[in-house]
Every structure is written in structure tokens, then in C-alpha cells.
Amino acid sequence: MEYKNLLTTYKDGILVVTINRPKALNALNKQTLSDLRQLFEKDALNLEGLRGVVLTGAGEKAFVAGADITEFNGLDAQGGLDMAQNGHDIFFSIERFHVPVIAAVGGYALGGGCELAMACHIRVASDKALFGQPEVNLGLIPGYGGTQRLIQYIGKGRALELLMTADMIDAQKALDWGLANHVVPHGEEIEKAIEILKKIAKKAPLAISKTIATVNAYFDKEHDGFKQEVLQFAQTVKTEDFKEGAAAFLEKRKAVFQGK
Ligand code: HXC
């Protein structure tokens, strides 16, 4: 399995996938998303004996710091729809994957990065992990399922607060609120994820696949919310505030929003 932006290792039925753009804090650019689609929709489906996947980010600082803001330039409403829908499709492929996928989060999991971690079945955080949905800083809303999945994990009030303040929460708070399943010392998150996958690998494989499918079915009624997110994300892409928010990030200054 060869990818531009992913590294993979495969041992004892466990695939470890590392998003490998550490200089950009593993931001999800188009290539990385296409690599993830190739992996979860094709390559990993054909892996003989696969029992679990660990998804992590390269480097010391980040799991994934979000969608790649350098690719936002020139995005129009149609581009926003396409971008959000593409991410939704890939993240649903992860959420519906037939073997467990565990996010090993060793640093920033922001925006699309938090959304990616939430599409995984379980999250193991290191004590340096930070989670957040900072899209409103850019004049945006989340577009990869964050408005829906964050509610599923932490509830409406906490989700609304995080989505509107753009605050980050640390690993301990993520654990207390149900976003992280475990917190381990920094550097031990992949090992802990593998330990969990090895335990699950001893169980009946078909029962595990059906468990994932059936738990997912509980949330099917919320698909209208996912559709709304794609539409509303595309609306935010049309605004002057979005142009200002993205420009301010790239120019390393504070955004000044006008509400238009
Ligand atoms: C592109 C990014 C990036 C991103 C960081 N970088 N996040 N590049 N897209 N999302 C780059 C920086 O520009 C910088 O590049 C390098 O990574 C290191 O980042 P710094 O900012 O210098 O590091 P630090 O000061 O430690 O701050 C870390 C940080 C900050 C707090 C994580 O980088 C940050 O706020 N990033 C943006 C987070 C964010 O807004 N994410 C949501 C994106 S929108 P250089 O070249 O200067 O070294 C989103 C929507 C998804 O995800 C839905 C779409 C449909």
C-alpha cells in the first residue's frame, strides 16, 4: 500500500495508518483525503486477516489540525458543497468500516481533525492531546460531520459551547465529557490502541462487524443533520467573513469579521 501522505505498517492483523504531513500539522489536503478514501474504500478491504486499524498523525504536535486552509483560496459555494460532501463520504466509510478503527491522538485534533477522530470508533488521547472545532474563527462551520458527531459524544450544550467559542479542551476534559475513551502518557497512545484492538481481535469477527453496524444504526435518524451541515457549510463559504477568516490565518493576524 503506497500513498503520498499516509504511512502504513501491517502486523498481526492490525494496520497502523499515519497521516504524514507534520510540517502542516497533518492538515487534511485533497491528496490526504484521497489517500484515506483509497485506503478505507479499497485497499484495506482486501487486506487478508485485517482485525483493526489505528489512525494517527506524524510528529509530536498534532493528530490533524483540520482541513488544509491553504486550499481554501477561491472556494465558492459549489466548491464548499463538494468539499463537505467528499469529506462526509470518506468519514462515513471510516465510521462504517467493518473492523474497529481507533484514533490515537497525540496532539491537536482540531476542525476536520477532531471530526476525523470522531468518525473513528474509539479515541485514545495522549495527555498532550487537544480537541476543538475552531471553524468560527475562520468564518465557517464544521463541514466534515462535526456539528452532528460532537453532539453524539458530549451532548448538545457542551457541543454548542465548543462550536461557538472555538475553545480547545484537553485530554482529561475530553475523557470526562466522553469524547476520549482513554488518556495515556504522551507517546503511548498507539500502543494503547493496539492493546484494545488485540483484545477485540479475540472476539468473533462477524459479531464485531455487526456490533459496529448496529450501533451506527442508532444514529441513522440524524442524517438530515448531516445534510444540513453540508448545505450550511457551503453557505458560509460564500461570505466575506470566510474570506477574511482564512486570509487572517494565512497572514498570521487576527480576523476582523463584519457579519456579511
Ligand atoms: C494548513 C496549517 C493548518 C491548517 C496549521 N498549519 N494548521 N496549514 N491548514 N489547518 C500550518 C501553519 O500554517 C504552519 O505553517 C504550521 O502548520 C505550524 O502551525 P503554527 O500555527 O505555526 O503552530 P502553532 O503556533 O503551534 O499553532 C498550532 C495551531 C494553529 C493552534 C494548531 O496552527 C492553528 O490554529 N491551526 C488552524 C486550526 C484550524 O483552524 N483548523 C480548522 C480548519 S477548518 P508554516 O508554513 O507557517 O510553518 C476545517 C473545516 C473542515 O477543518 C471542514 C471542511 C469541509
Structure description:
With 260 residues, this protein is of the alpha/beta class. It is 45% helix and 17% strand. A hairpin with a 2-residue loop joins strand 1 (6-11) and strand 2 (14-19). One of its GO terms (biological process) is fatty acid beta-oxidation. GO terms for molecular function: lyase activity.
What class, by secondary structure content?
Answer: alpha/beta
| Biggest sheet: strand arrangement | 1-2-3-5-7-10
Total number of β-strand segments?
10
Strand content: 15-25%
What would you report as the Rg, rounded to the nearest angstrom? 17 Å
Return the string of H and E elements: EEHEEHEEHEEHHEHEHHHH
Residue-averaged pLDDT, rounded? 97
* Morphology: globular
Residue ranges: pLDDT <50 for 5 or more in a row? none
Number of helices: 10
Largest beta-sheet details:
6 strands, mixed
What small molecules accompany the polymer chains?
Answer: hexanoyl-coenzyme A
The residue fraction in helices comes out at 40-55%
Task: Kindly report how far apart the N and C termini lie.
Answer: 46 Å
SSE arrangement:
Elements (H helix, E strand, L loop, with lengths): L5 E6 L2 E6 L10 H12 L10 E6 L4 E3 L12 H19 L5 E5 L2 E3 L1 H8 L2 E5 L3 E3 L13 H9 L1 H10 L2 E3 H7 L4 E3 L4 H13 L3 H14 L4 H15 L2 H11 L10
Parallel strand pairs: 2-3, 3-5, 4-6, 5-7, 6-8, 7-10
Antiparallel strand pairs: 1-2, 8-9
Helix pairs in contact: 1-2, 2-9, 3-4, 4-5
